[in-house]
Amino acid sequence: MSSIPETERIAKAVARQLHKRGEQMVKVICVGNLVADAVARPVCELPAKGKLSLVDDLQLHSGGCAANTGAALAKLGVATAVVGKVGQDGFGDFMVDALSRAGLDVSGISRSAAYHTSASLVLVAPDGERSFIHALGANQELADTDVLDSQLAGGKILHVAGSFLLPKLDGQPTGRLLKRAHSLGLTTALDTAWDAQGRWASLLLPVLGEIDIFLPSIEEAKMITGLEKPQEIAAFFLERGVKIIGLKMGAEGSYVRDVAAEYWLPPYKVEAIDATGAGDSFVAGFLAGVVHNWDLERTGKFANAVGASCVTAIGATSGIRSWEETVRFMETGQWAG
């Protein structure tokens, strides 16, 4: 069991002082899972029992939906805080330090005495597609009561990241948190993960009325609704209170819709190295567009551009460029230089 490192204490103290002085007003609060990702590539097949396989590269990265989305937002210049739980271990030290160095407010990250930090083995195939071996870890303890009103005050968007992987937050507790955020004047957003337990609609449908912006993958949305066509899926969510729906559709780009308009947005063409975090990066781009008060079409295009940048490097956020570079790429389809 490790003690809280000096870097963490300093980061939290600085974040508190920034808030007190009003020098950095947090725009987005990302609440959700924090995961230490060990990324191996390329993985063509698993070794036989008792055997060993070599890979070209194996790196440790900060991961988890809240961490990925938050770090991408910070790279895009959006002041962001992350609220979550890690263990009292080396992976926990690594996560807090990495997110602090990424420019995030980490004062909302707490330590679990009962669980180790959540971790994943990310196995990246030669074509960039990923498979995961995942331990929930300290994310199992994260609850709506871990998010304080003082952490939400003055923010623009509360984003719940990684629904279906947060046992104490999923379902009614998420609804309570989103409702509280609305009462404090925030826009609410939510992104899902794959539900390996198959609960889908039973957990999510009761809270749809509190979600302003819903950004699932097309496959997750199909599982929640039982529908196949993006237009039908989007209509399903809009009819139940969601204000904006953005469906992440991988190689097909994205489909975004509100009550007034819909847009099919093709993907940007890039060389895919590692798709880890691509969905979370899309979410970060979308939320950044909302922070900048862009219209739906431009927001969706920017989200696609951020998602495309993500896959050009190993790790969930290594490929994310600056705001200016990404806007230029969105407009031209090419990176400068």
Could you walk me through the main structural features you see in this protein, from its secondary elements to its overall organization?
The protein has a 9-stranded mixed beta sheet, sandwiched between helices. A 4-stranded mixed beta sheet has the order 3-2-6-7. It is 34% helix and 22% strand. Strand 12 and strand 13 (262-265) form a beta hairpin. The chain has 337 residues and is of the alpha/beta class. The model is unreliable at 13-23 (pLDDT under 50). The relative contact order is 0.14. The longest helix is centred in the N-terminal third of the chain and has 16 residues, at 6-21. It starts with 5 loop residues before the first helix and ends in a 5-residue tail after the last helix.
Key features of this structure:
22% strand, 11 helices, nine-stranded mixed sheet, alpha/beta, single chain, 337 residues
Largest sheet entry: 9 strands, mixed
Low-confidence segments, given as residue ranges, are 13-23
Q: What general outline do the C-alpha atoms trace?
A: globular
Provide the spatial order of strands within the biggest beta sheet.
Answer: 5-4-1-8-9-10-11-12-13
How much helix is in the residues?
25-40%
The secondary-structure class comes to alpha/beta
Query: What gyration radius follows from the Cα positions, in whole Å?
Result: 19 Å
What count of helical segments does DSSP give?
11
Put the structure in a nutshell.
By secondary structure, the protein is α/β, with parallel strands linked by helices.
